[in-house]
Every structure is written in C-alpha cells, then in structure tokens.
Amino acid sequence: MKYMLMMNHPGKGPYQIGSWPKEDLSRHIQFMMSFAKKLRSAGELVAAEGLSGPDQAKVVRAGSDGKPITDGVFPESKEFLVGYWIVDVETKERAYEIAAEASAAPGRGGAPLNMAIEVRQVMSAPPPDAP
C-alpha cells in the first residue's frame, strides 16, 4: 500500500529553516538524506521532496476562458506543507513508524522538531475489470 506522508510547518510567517545556524541546517539536511537512503534501501521509498515556503506559493485556477488565474503569495499561512514522502509499505502501522521517524528530524541545536506528519493512503486505480 502506498502512503503519502506530509510534513507540515506550524506557520508563524515564512519557513524559518533558512535562518538556522549553518551547522543546524547541515545536520537537518544530512538527516533527510540518510533517511531517504534508508527508505530507498528498504525498497519503501517511492518519492520525496522538500518544498519552498508559502511566501513563494500561488493558488492557480482556470478562468472562464481556461487561462490561469493566480492568487497568493501566502506568507502568513497558519500551517503549510514543507515536504513529503510517498512510501510503499505493507501496513499502515509501518507508514506511521516512518512518519514518526521523519517527525523527529533535528532542528535548531539538534533538538527533534517533532513536526506534525499527516499520513494518507494513496488511492489506487479501480481494477481493470471494473464496470
């Protein structure tokens, strides 16, 4: 079963990781790289990406003429998605274990961030013989 694990930042302005001391940022990035390597080696990682902050985001809708209409940026978002993983695991409990490990990524001073990770099953396509 595939699950999407979404790491959410609690908000309060732009994503603060850019203002961390260099050693804290390096520690965090190293954790994320090692974490991805571990999941890849286990055959569980489908995809993973970090995202820019809401201060660079736009919401896009199609106008009545089909052309894009944008809204944003949203620097004052209360909570926003900072990254995600898609994993392919045997059980939802394994997805929860992976999410808990991701949540404990190091932040300032090496302290675990304990950020909320939303876990949602990826919907599969209907069987080929479905009406």
Could you say what the CATH architecture is? Answer: 2-Layer Sandwich
User: N- to C-terminal separation?
Assistant: 23 Å
**Mean pLDDT, rounded to whole units?**
88
Describe the largest sheet: 4 strands, antiparallel
Helical amount = 10-25%
Major beta sheet, strand line-up? 2-5-1-6
Radius of gyration: 17 Å
Helix and strand element order? EHEEEEHE
**What is the level 1 CATH name?**
Alpha Beta
Give the CATH topology.
Alpha-Beta Plaits
Strand content: 25-35%
Quantity of strands, as a count: 6
Describe what this molecule looks like in 3D.
Helix content is 24%, strand content 27%. It is an alpha+beta fold and 131 residues long. The strands form 2 sheets. It has a 4-stranded antiparallel beta sheet with strand order 2-5-1-6. Strands 3-4 form a two-stranded antiparallel ribbon. It has one domain: Alpha-Beta Plaits (2-Layer Sandwich). It starts with a strand and ends in a 10-residue tail after the last strand. It has helices spanning 22-41, 92-103; strands at 2-9, 45-50, 59-62, 68-71, 80-88, 117-121. It contains 2 helices and 6 strands. The mean pLDDT is 88.
